[in-house]
Amino acid sequence: MRLRELGEDKLLQKILPQLHRNNRVITGAGDDCAVVRFRGAKDLLLLKTDCVVENIHFAPNTDARAVGWKAMMRTFSDFAAMSGVPEFALVTLAIESKRELSWIEKLYRGLNRAAARFRVAIVGGETSDTRGSTVVAISAVGYVERDRCIWRSGGNANDDLFVTGRLGGSVRTRHLKFVPRIDEARWLTSHFHIHAMIDLSDGLGTDLPRLAQASKLGFIIEQNALPLASGCSVEQAISEGEDYELLFALSPRNRESLERSWTGAFPKIPLTRIGQLTAKREIEKPKFPAGYVHFRQRR
């Protein structure tokens, strides 16, 4: 079987159970970040690696500073999904030797600018020649307090589902200049008991089923309630991906309080209830367009 027939999620289902773990691992591969206990630390350690690949995540003529920004911020977005705070980053760069030095200098300006936005120190990495597309991989380490760590798997039946911001259209330019919702996630977990959360990198059509499956639940979406970016259709909002917004679940009893206090805290960022989690037996299979699936599609 070839990867294009399998897709990313089924590939990971085959690989992840084989990975070695020890007794300090709380959550290994399979959530937005790995969560581990660190000797003597009161907080939990978060680890994450992500990458951008030329012709997949950015075009060859993309400004290198934007590539650096996106590479770093993609990784930070996964920290936001777990209410975490990134602190250190490593940069691995695989690039052809014919590439101009000026491009690499601009790339690192973008990386540095993104890291500085969240006071993250870039502490090293690796460089390698390649005969193929440029790859920029970021590994980041940070923390989250034990009582504020949010997994995908904590959702309850009847929980309200909310998304931040607007969906769709990011593939035009927004995916190169977005700011991860770290501040918003930290605010959420300081004021409310969030049950489950994920960042929308592969699109609502892929990431919402991941959250529901992790929570062993189904979902109902009110498609006419989706907060669409200007000029976008509902299908684009569900399927395009690269929104890097937060999708989260919380108890319906907190709905009014959340909506009221959010407006005061983040008046320029929409917050929209888009549906709810349900017991699986209550629905057969929701008709829901798929989001982006690695190995099966090209961005």
How does this model look, in words?
By secondary structure, the protein is α+β, with helices and mostly antiparallel strands. The protein has 2 domains: 3-144, 60s Ribosomal Protein L30, Chain: A (2-Layer Sandwich), CATH 3.30.1330; 152-282, Alpha-Beta Complex (Phosphoribosyl-aminoimidazole Synthetase, Chain A, domain 2), CATH 3.90.650.10. Helix content is 28%, strand content 24%. Strands 1-2-3-6-4-5 form a 6-stranded mixed β-sheet, with helices on one face. Helix 3 runs parallel beside helix 4 and helix 3 (64-81) runs parallel beside helix 5. The protein is globular, with a radius of gyration of 19 Å.
Outline the fold blueprint.
Layout: H1 3-6, H2 8-15, E1 25-27, E2 34-36, E3 44-53, H3 64-81, E4 85-95, H4 101-117, E5 121-129, E6 135-144, E7 160-164, H5 182-191, E8 196-199, H6 204-214, E9 218-221, H7 234-239, E10 246-250, H8 255-265, E11 271-278
Parallel strand pairs: 4-5
Antiparallel strand pairs: 1-2, 2-3, 3-6, 4-6, 7-10, 7-11, 8-10, 9-11
Helix pairs in contact: 3-4, 3-5
In short:
Helices cover 28% and strands 24% of the residues. With 299 residues, it is of the alpha+beta class. The chain has two domains: 3-144, 2-Layer Sandwich (60s Ribosomal Protein L30, Chain: A); 152-282, PurM-like C-terminal domain (Phosphoribosyl-aminoimidazole Synthetase, Chain A, domain 2).
* First and last CA, distance: 23 Å
Q: How does CATH name the architecture of the largest domain?
A: 2-Layer Sandwich
Shape: globular
Radius of gyration, in Å, reads 19 Å
Give the biggest beta sheet. Answer: 6 strands, mixed
Strand residue content: 15-25%
Structural class: alpha+beta
The number of distinct helices, counting runs of at least 4 residues, comes to 8
